[in-house]
Automatic annotation (TrEMBL):
Compartments it resides in: Cytoplasm
Main location: cytoplasm
Gene Ontology molecular function: argininosuccinate lyase activity
Organism lineage: Bacteria, Bacillati, Actinomycetota, Actinomycetes, Propionibacteriales
Name recorded for this polypeptide: Argininosuccinate lyase
Native species: Naumannella cuiyingiana
Length: 461
C-alpha cells in the first residue's frame, strides 16, 4: 500500500530523482474519476470470469464508491509516494477494503490499457464542454450578423480594399470554420468510441476477461480490435490536439481582425468596457487584450500539437513511457480553451459596430472597379478590355485624388467611348453587394439564407 505498483524484483526503492521524473500524479490526478469508473467495470469483468465471488465484487464496489466519495470531497488525494493516479487509487482502495480484497483488482489489466482508456473517457467529456464554448462563439457571431443585416463594409484581399460586402457576410465567414471544428469534434468522438481496456500491457487480456463487456459498461460503442494498437496508438490524442489547435487558430483569425478594427485608423468597432483593459500609465487606453490573448494562446495550442507529434514520431510498438507526455499538452489545450472560448464569445457579442463609417468606407479605395468592368461586360465588352478600361478609370481617379463615383460623364467618355454616365448607377456599395446574388454571395437575400443555414447546422452539432 505505498502507491507504487511494482517492487518485487527490485532490491531497493527508486532513487529520489528517478521517482521525481517518473511521478505523474501532479497532472494525471484529474483522471481519477475515470480510473474509478474503469475499476468498477473491471471488477464486474473479474466477477463474470469467476475470479471474484459475488461478495468480493460487492465489497470492491462499495470500496470504490467510498473511495470515489473521498476523492470528490478532497479527503483522499495523491501522496508524494504515489507514482501515478493508478497507484494512488489502489493505495486508497486498499486503505478501505484491505490488502487481500484490494489486491485482487489489478488482475488482468495494466496501467497501459487503463491510461489509454481514461484519456478517451476524459476527451469524450471535455470535448462536449469545448463544443459548447465554440457554439457560444458562433451564437455571438450570428447574433451580430443578424443585427447588422444590410450594413456594407469594405471586403478585403491582401488587407487592401477589394469589393464591398455585408458585415454580416464577413462575420458569418468566421462562423463556418467554427462549425467545421464542431464537425471535427463529432467525427473524433466517433473514433474515440472504442475502449482499449482489456488490451492489458499489450498482448490482450488473459484470465477470460471480456473487453466488450467492459467497453459497454464504460459507455463505449465497442472495444479495440488490436490490443497493441489499443495501448500504443496516440493518433487520437494528436487528433484532439489538432482540433484544439485549429479552434485556437480560428479564434486567433477573428481576434486579429477585432484588434485591427478597434484601432483609431480602422474605427470599425468599439470594444465593450467589460471585455477590454486599460493601461497603468496611459489614461486613454482601451486595449483588446481578450483578442490578443486568443492570438497568443493559438501559438501555445499549436505548440501542444507539434510537441505531441514529435513525441510520437519515432516510437516503436507497443507502449513506451514517452507516451506519458501526451497528457499535459491535451490537458493544457482543454484548460486554455475552457477559459478562452467564453471570453471570445463575450468580446464578439458586445462589439459595437460603427455602421455609418463601415458603409462610408465600403465603396472607397476603388472597391467598385470590378463592378465597372462587369457593367462593360453586360454591354458586350470582352472582360479583358473591360478590365483595362476600369483600370484606366482607377488610374485617373488616383491621379486626381478622387473616387470612381466622382467621375463625370466627360471623364468617363474620355477614358473610353464604351463608358457613359449610366455606369454611375451601378457604382454603389449596395448595388455591388446586391449583384453578388449567386449561392454563397454577399447579396442580402443570400446572407439571410446563410444565417438560417448556420442556425440549422449549429442546432444539430
Ligand atoms: N503514467 C503512464 C502514462 O501516462 C501510464 C502508466 C504506464 N506505466 C508503465 N510503466 N507502463 O502513460
Amino acid at each position: 500500500g505505498q502507491g507504487r505498483l511494482w517492487g518485487g524484483r527490485f532490491a531497493g526503492g527508486p532513487a529520489e530523482a528517478m521517482f521525481e521524473l517518473s511521478r505523474s500524479t501532479q497532472f494525471d490526478w484529474r483522471l481519477a474519476r475515470h480510473d474509478l469508473a474503469g475499476s468498477r467495470a473491471h471488477a464486474r469483468a473479474l466477477h463474470a470470469a469467476g475470479l471474484l465471488t459475488a461478495d468480493e465484487l460487492a465489497g470492491l464496489l462499495r470500496g470504490i464508491d467510498e473511495l470515489d466519495a473521498r476523492v470528490a470531497s478532497g479527503e483522499f488525494g495523491p501522496a508524494p509516494t504515489d507514482e501515478d493516479v493508478h497507484g494512488a487509487l489502489e493505495r486508497g482502495l486498499i486503505e478501505i477494503v484491505g490488502a487481500e480484497l484490494g489486491g485482487r483488482l489489478r488482475a488482468g489489466r495494466s496501467r497501459n490499457d487503463q491510461i489509454a482508456t481514461l484519456i478517451r473517457l476524459y476527451l469524450r467529456e471535455e470535448l462536449t464542454v469545448i463544443a459548447d464554448g465554440v457554439l457560444a462563439v458562433i451564437a455571438a457571431l450570428t447574433a451580430q450578423a443578424q443585427d447588422l443585416l444590410g450594413v456594407p463594409m469594405p471586403g478585403r484581399t491582401h488587407l487592401q480594399h477589394a469589393q464591398p460586402v455585408l458585415v454580416s457576410h464577413h462575420l458569418l465567414a468566421h462562423a463556418w470554420p467554427l462549425l467545421r471544428d464542431l464537425q471535427r469534434i463529432a467525427d473524433l468522438r466517433g473514433r474515440l468510441d472504442e475502449s482499449p481496456y482489456g488490451s492489458a500491457a499489450l498482448a490482450g487480456t488473459s484470465l477470460g476477461l471480456d473487453p466488450e463487456a467492459v467497453a459497454a459498461d464504460l459507455g463505449f460503442a465497442g472495444s479495440v480490435a488490436n490490443s497493441i494498437d489499443g495501448t500504443a496508438a496516440r493518433d487520437l490524442t494528436a487528433e484532439a490536439a489538432y482540433v484544439l489547435a485549429q479552434i485556437g487558430v480560428d479564434l486567433s483569425r477573428i481576434s486579429e481582425e477585432v484588434i485591427l478594427w478597434s484601432t483609431h485608423e480602422f474605427g470599425f468597432v468599439t470594444l465593450d468596457d467589460a471585455w477590454s483593459t486599460g493601461s497603468s500609465i496611459m489614461p486613454q487606453k482601451k486595449n483588446p487584450d481578450v483578442a490578443e490573448l486568443a492570438r497568443g494562446k493559438a501559438g501555445r495550442l499549436i505548440g501542444n500539437l507539434t510537441g505531441l507529434l514529435a513525441t510520437l514520431k519515432g516510437l516503436p510498438l507497443a507502449y513506451n513511457r514517452d507516451l506519458q507526455e501526451d497528457k499535459e499538452p491535451i490537458f493544457d489545450g482543454i484548460d486554455q480553451l475552457r477559459i478562452l472560448l467564453p471570453a471570445v464569445a463575450g468580446l464578439l457579442g458586445t462589439l459595437t459596430f460603427h455602421r455609418d463609417r463601415l458603409a462610408a468606407l465600403a465603396p472607397q479605395g476603388f472597391s467598385l472597379a470590378t463592378d465597372l468592368a462587369d457593367w462593360l461586360v453586360r454591354r458586350r465588352v470582352p472582360f479583358a478590355r473591360a478590365h483595362e478600361i476600369a483600370g484606366e478609370a482607377v488610374r485617373l481617379c488616383e491621379a486626381r485624388g478622387i473616387e470612381l463615383t466622382d467621375l463625370t460623364a466627360t471623364d468617363l467618355a474620355e477614358i473610353s467611348p464604351e463608358l457613359d454616365a449610366e455606369v454611375l448607377e451601378v457604382l454603389t456599395a449596395p448595388g455591388a453587394i446586391a449583384a453578388r446574388s449567386g449561392r454563397g454571395g454577399t447579396a442580402p437575400a443570400r446572407v439571410e439564407e446563410q444565417l438560417a443555414e448556420v442556425a440549422e447546422l449549429a442546432a444539430r452539432l
